[in-house]
Amino acid sequence: MRWWICGLLFFATTINYIDRGVIGVLKPTLQHDLGWSEIDYSNIVFAFQLAYAGGYLFGGRLVDAIGLRVGYALAIALWSVAAMGHGLVRTVLGFSVARFGLGLAEGGNFPAAIKTVSEWFPKKERALATGLFNAGCNIGAIVTPLTVPWIAINLGWPAAFLMTGSLGFACVILWIVIYRPPREHPNLSRAELDYIESDPADPAVHIRWAELLRYRATWAVIAGMVLSSPIWWFYLYWIPDFLFKRHHVDLIHMGAPLVTIYLISDAGSIAGGWLSSSLIARGWRVNAARKLALLVCALCVVPVFFASRVSDEWTAVLLIALAAAAHQGWSANLFTLVSDNMPKQTVSSVVGIAGFAGALAGMGFAKLVGYVLQWTGSYVILFAIAPAAYLIAFAMMCFIIPSESAAGVSENP
Q1: In sequence order, what DSSP letters do the residues of 123-155 get, joined into one string?
Q2: Is 211 part of any domain?
Q3: End-to-end CA distance of the chain
């Protein structure tokens, strides 16, 4: 049953990324039809990031407070309404408002999903489960360029927002019908419940929200999110534009390179989660297994430095694909650090705090991207930033959590 629950998380995350990715695929079309500048587009992305930061922070707290079943369903329903709203506006302000609503609601996805994994999986399977549902990011990013151009060309770009936005309501129904906590689920066997609860019990502590900042594990995840999340937003919102401007890939031909990037990213998400889970199964300590997986992922980002320098379209695509896959493997292990080191009742809140910090960093990076492209017309600087971000993040995380005993609530902060 736990893998069916993981499948629901995968479905929700796929829809989450379809809804946020439509605007990136349609960027050249919207710029042409609506007369946006690079700075206009960066302002629209900024509005999403601003709201996403708040949604991550308060969405995580809300899920911890009202429970997963209601909290997650509410988030999905609200972001679906906001996604459809994009099809009804025509101005930069209108799109900014729609993106703000989308970001505010979508911020609840990952805190809710990570909390679900912490409740339904033992530690040795959590990174794999996280990698599997996190692969929905890439499936969403694959589905979007395969479907949105056809809809936009045949039915108009507003229809693309309306049709993709409506998908979330099916997910809401499935979640309400299927999800229950493990101990309340009618289809969960006693044997599987015992397996899910096979880890030592969490410490019996009550931690107030503000007190979460006293713990090393919280700051380690914040560091990882602040430095890596903006790079992922850059891929999602600007790679279609990079391919269009650098390699003249138009809307009709955008599907193949983007599908390639996100298919390979899918493999990275699952492989990153599998790597640390496999090491733990072979007897490695949890902290060491997670760190090795994070280091491998950070090193795999380094070749993207050359993506803006190569003249061949598919060489650039493969370099970006490797970096995107490494990010997804990185994320699977980064998110799992929370459930490794913090009690289950705090997981959504910690993920929310870290996601808030990462989204704030993403806001700043979105503005930087807009001004760099407006002033230089080149992606060279932006692709140079990406490799350094992950290596610095890994070094900071090792400094913050030097050993397993330094991370969690059972020790002094």
Answers
A1: HHHHHHHHHHHHHHHHHHHHHHHHHHHHHHHHH
A2: no
A3: 36
Contacts of 306 (CB under 8 A, 6+ apart): 319, 383
**Any domain includes 187:** no
Q: Which structural domain range is residue 394 located in?
A: 2-180+220-406
**Which phi-psi region, left, alpha or beta, contains residue 248 (left: φ > 0; alpha: ψ -120 to 50)?**
left
* pLDDT tens digits, 251-308: 778 788 988 998 898 888 888 888 888 888 888 888 889 899 999 999 999 999 999 9
Handedness of CA 177, 180, 184, 188 (dihedral sign): positive
Specify if 303 maps to a domain. Answer: yes
Looking up residue 247, the CATH number of its domain turns out to be 1.20.1250.20
Cα separation, 347 vs 341, whole angstroms: 9
pTM score above 0.85:
no
Q: State pLDDT tens for residues 337-375.
A: 887 877 777 777 788 888 888 888 988 898 898 889 888
Tokens 């496999």 correspond to: 278
- Give one DSSP letter per residue of 70-91, joined into a string: HHHHHHHHHHHHHHHHGGG--S
Residue 202 belongs to a domain: no
- Return the closest-CA partner of residue 355 out of 51, 121, 139, 45: 51
* Region for residue 310 given its phi and psi (left: phi exceeds 0; alpha: psi -120 to 50; beta: otherwise): beta
> Crossing angle of helices 157-165/27-34, nearest 10°?
130
* Extended beta strands in 6-95, E state: none
The one-letter amino acid code at 412 reads N
Short-list 153, 152, 175, 212, CA closest to 11: 175
| Rounded Cα gap, residues 393 and 399, in angstroms | 10
Q: Three-state SS for 351? A: helix
Question: What is the domain count for the chain?
Answer: 1
